Description:
The complex is a heterodimer.
Chain A: E1 4-5, E2 10-14, E3 19-25, E4 32-38, E5 45-51, E6 56-59, E7 62-67, E8 72-77, E9 86-93, E10 102-103, E11 107-112
Parallel strand pairs in A: 2-11
Antiparallel strand pairs in A: 1-3, 3-8, 4-5, 4-9, 6-7, 7-8, 9-10, 9-11
Chain B: E1 4-7, E2 10-13, E3 19-25, E4 31-38, E5 42-49, E6 56-57, E7 64-68, E8 74-78, E9 87-94, E10 103-104, E11 108-112
Parallel strand pairs in B: 2-11
Antiparallel strand pairs in B: 1-3, 3-8, 4-5, 4-9, 5-6, 7-8, 9-10, 9-11
Amino acid sequence: DQQVKQNSPSLSVQEGRISILNCDYTNSMFDYFLWYKKYPAEGPTFLISISSIKDKNEDGRFTVFLNKSAKHLSLHIVPSQPGDSAVYFCAASAKRTGNQFYFGTGTSLTVIP
Amino acid sequence: NAGVTQTPKFQVLKTGQSMTLQCAQDMNHNSMYWYRQDPGMGLRLIYYSASEGTTDKGEVPNGYNVSRLNKREFSLRLESAAPSQTSVYFCASSEGLALYEQYFGPGTRLTVT
């Protein structure tokens, strides 16, 4: 049973516009969330994280928002650039009770020049 | 710094054959992981090692064994390969469990015929 879900397999955005990638989770014990970016034939690379004590974390063009009541997080990329074209995975863990991250199925972002 | 390295990059096995996937990290990380990535399934944890000398099962351990040879190296063994084990395998490492981002290797693409 998928505890972390990314319901949009793909997303296309014009260069310069905002990209919004969404992630939902079912386990209310999750309290730490990460986003990874993956290019073809490479391993995922860490992008940004957020703890459940926050509702927003920003790093340059990347912002992650967390809505705990809705069990939903989103990644905003502004402005989007062609080099952002990749697969994005969200992941979640429960630091008090768990030892592992659970990953979503990924969203493939294409930024059109 | 090479980060996380994996060998081999590609492998084709016949059903019933065995093989070992090798992983090494040079970041002095305590924890190491093996994931598999299948289409539409995201990344699923096979086994992990919280620290040198310990290993634990993840979500999908059946058909696999692991060895944490030392702090740097964590190998994954398929004793009798099956077509269902056709996948891309990623090794990762982190400073610790659950709260720390993971650094991934480039992956091993395994096909079992």
